[in-house]
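Homework help board

Subject: predicted structure for assignment chain

Our instructor gave us this sequence and asked us to write out the predicted structure in token form, then describe one feature. I got the tokens but I'm not sure how to describe them. Can anyone check?
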Amino acid sequence: MHEEKELLDKWPAIERDFGRCTLQEYVDHTGIYYNVMLYRDKSGGCHEAVIIRIMRYFPLKRRD
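My token output:
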């Protein structure tokens, strides 16, 4: 998505199909990156989080 309006138009269907979600922006880079996992209960409360440091050894192709 490139525009905020596109996200706002699609968000209700995403939340309906998958429940409460966390949005993450695409960052184009190589090297070290971090993966964050949030564990939520049925009502959407966040109870645990895990942060993993990952070394990216090859460039990934960007999807447009």
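Reply (TA_rk): Your tokens look well-formed. For the description, you could write something like this. The mean pLDDT is 82. That's the kind of observation they're looking for.
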